[in-house]
Structures are given as C-alpha cells and as structure tokens.
Design brief:
The structure is a homodimer. The first copy, chain A, is mainly alpha-helical. Chain A is elongated and about 70 Å long. At the A-B interface, helix 1, helix 6, helix 7, helix 8 and helix 9 of A face helix 1, helix 6, helix 7, helix 8 and helix 9 of B. The structure holds a DNA duplex (30 and 30 nucleotides).
DNA sequence: TTTATTATACCAACTAGTTTGTTTAAATTT
DNA sequence: AAATTTAAACAAACTAGTTGGTATAATAAA
C-alpha cells in the first residue's frame, strides 16, 4: 500500500467548503484551495478528477450530514411520541439549540449552489432537491401525526407547511449573512415553532 | 448632443442580471454579457468602468425597485388603515398576488451576492443590508400599529417578527429554485399571513 | 531479515486557454 | 460638434487540467 490519503481529502473538502461560502464556487480557484490546504495541484487532482467532482463530493458529504442531523433530532424526540405536537415542537427546538450561540452567521451549501446552477451537473443539483424532499417527507409525517389528535385552526396545505421549515432555514441563513447577525437563525426557527403552536388545538369530541 | 446611451446601459443591466442568476457573478464573464446584448467591449467599458461597477449599479437598481414595490404595496393598502391588522394582512397579500402565476421560480440578487460576498466591495454589500433594514423598519411600523388595538397571543420580539417577512421571501426563493417550483413563494407568503392572523387577537377592555 | 515489488499518495513545472481591462482609430448617431 | 458605439489588437494575470517523476508504506520474495 501507500500512505493514507484521507486526511488530505478531508482537508480539501473542509477548506473548499469554507472558500465557497466566501467566494462562491466559480469564485473559488483551485490555486486558492491549494494555498489554504498547503497541498499541491497534483495531490488535488489525484483526489478529485475535476473541480466539478469536488463540488459533487462536497454536496454529497454536506447532504449526508444534514440528513444525519435531521435523524438525530428525530431520535432525540422519540420520547415525546405520546404527544405528536410536543414531538414536533421538540424537533424544532433541537435546531433552535443547534443554531444558538454560533460564532458566526451560518450558511447553506444548497443555497450557494442554487444561485449559480449552471456551474454544476444535473446529478449535483438533483442531489440537493432530493435532500430537500427528504425533509419534506419527514416534516409531513410529523405533521400528519399531530393531525390525528389535533385540529388545525386554519386551512393548511400539508405539503407546503412541511416545506416551511426548510424555507425558514434557508431564508434565515441568507438574512443572517446579509446582516451579519449570527443569532438570527435561531430567532426565526422560534417563529416557526410559534406558528406550529398556534395552528393546532386539541380535537373536541363530537 | 450626442446619441442616447440609456438603451445600451439598460440592456447591459437587464441581461447581466439574468446571467448572474444563472451563473453567479464570478461565473458570469463580460464576454457572455457582450454575446447576450450584442454590444462590444468598448461599449461595455464606456458604460461601466469595471465589472464591479456593474455589480454595484445592478444592486442599486434592484434595491430601488424593491423598495418601490414595498412602498407601492403600502400605498395600495392605505385604505385599510382603520384596521391595522387588516392593513398588515393586505400588505402581505399584495406580494402573494405578485408572486402568483409566475412563469419561472423567482430569485433575489441580495441572496446571490450574499453567497459570494468576497466578490463585492464594502459599499455594495452595505447597500444590501441597508435595504433589508428598510424592510425591517416598514414591517416594524406596520406591526406596532397592530399592537395598538390587538394583543399578541404569544410573546413576540418585534424586530425579529419584522424581519420574518424578508426571511420567508429569501427562503422561498432558494427553495423554489432548488425544487424548480414556481408557485412555492406565494404559498409560503400565505403561511406568513396565517402566522400574523394567528398571533393577534382584539384587545379586551380592562 | 534483507531486498524487490507494487499501489497509493504526492510534488513541481508546464500547457492551453480564458479572464478583465486597455488602447486606438474610425464610424455613427443626434 | 459632442456623445456613443464599433472593431480589432493587445497585455498581464489567472484558469483548469496534464505530465513525468518521486516518496511512502505495506507486502512478497530471497
């Protein structure tokens, strides 16, 4: 065998993610990545066939962690399953906690890619939409469970209510970056939680 | 006099905005702009000293239109001033109408720039944050007026509730582009309207 | 246990093309 | 005559990607 390439590959992934949030993908040159990682061009192209292959590997890793966080929040709130509304609110609270006390405004690679879509191949963009749809499925199930014991005070469209969580995440990321306000994301997830609390009321027995 | 350069300048602004939504700012070359507009390099640099000067002119024009739309929605709902809640809801409804029946998913230049901030000078980025803060001021005033005759059912932070509108706009833009769903933005503005409707209840007379 | 072998990981220099921006002189409008 | 636009050549820096060779470390043969 030879030496272990994983640390190098991981360094490339980590530093290029940081650079993409600063410069965008197009605005990030391979030379910049080499400077930050301290590796050479040969090493870079050994690990990634093209710059675009890096983009793809990055979004795959990012989406994997994203779904992991989602599932971890589901697990952590399993004890609340007896009351589906409590569970839904607890699920959101997990992300409020996650987004509290950050040292800088957070961002999302989905949004970064989405605002320069022509730079990426179909599969890369599809991976983003598929991951967002996983969030939709999860949120839909959580809300459906609530609707078994609760009435919605207003007419709601299940799908768009399910998507609303991702919408607020993405919007809060943009605004927190634009206003350089690191606590903003947690604040807006609280509004999401409020919204869910206000929508549902216990079913009356007819 | 000489001839009128405005049509050329406007064509540059219009086409480069389209291109930036496709490729990002870094990913958009001046040659691409020349191709789409059919003008020459000399003409481009006659109107804009640098590529960055174009970025600045673009965001200034975009922000000006944005604030114009905001003020037009304020004017259109002035007749509802007698009930501040009706007015707030009507204000949001104006944008629901605006975002209904679009032919393609909308996007926002603020978000586009925000995800490659290093490409722009301080003034350009500041113009974005200042414009978002104008939205904050407007929404804060609308909400303050509501609070004179209505109680909030939950404890709310005025500033973050005011920002929530821009957050939902920006988030809906990202997700609508990512999922290629043109009606999504209107749907999520409806959730915003729901939220406002659910928060407030008429003040009881103590 | 030393010596080859092999696959992996990495490096330094190079290439071909693209980028923004400049320059200059002539042509075209109003 | 003044303002705008074309056409075309040019430069300096930067771009993604290639090449030929080297280093590392585990393994296999002597």
């Amino acid at each position: 065998m030879g030496r272990d390439g994983k640390p190098t590959r991981d360094k490339i992934l980590a530093e290029s993610k940081t650079l993409i949030f600063e410069n965008g993908f197009s605005g990030t040159s391979i030379d910049q990545i080499l400077q930050r990682t301290g590796i050479t061009k040969g090493a870079f192209f050994y690990h990634f066939k093209t710059k675009n292959a890096l983009a793809r590997a990055l979004i795959e890793e990012y989406a994997k962690e994203d779904i992991l966080h989602m599932n971890q929040a589901l697990e952590k709130t399993e004890n609340l399953k007896s009351d589906a509304l409590e569970r839904l609110l607890g699920f959101i609270q997990e992300f409020i906690d996650m987004m509290s006390g950050l040292s800088e405004p957070p961002g999302c690679l989905y949004a970064s890619y989405t605002y320069e879509p022509s730079q990426f191949d179909k599969e890369t963009l599809q991976h983003i939409s598929e991951t967002i749809l996983k969030w939709r499925d999860t949120m839909q199930q959580l809300i459906k469970d609530v609707l078994k014991k609760y009435n919605a005070k207003i007419e709601i469209d299940l799908q768009s209510l399910a998507d609303h969580t991702v919408v607020i995440f993405e919007g809060a990321f943009v605004v927190s970056k634009a206003l350089n306000s690191k606590d903003l994301t947690a604040d807006h997830l609280k509004h999401l939680k409020n919204y869910f609390e206000l929508i549902f009321e216990p079913k009356s027995i007819d």
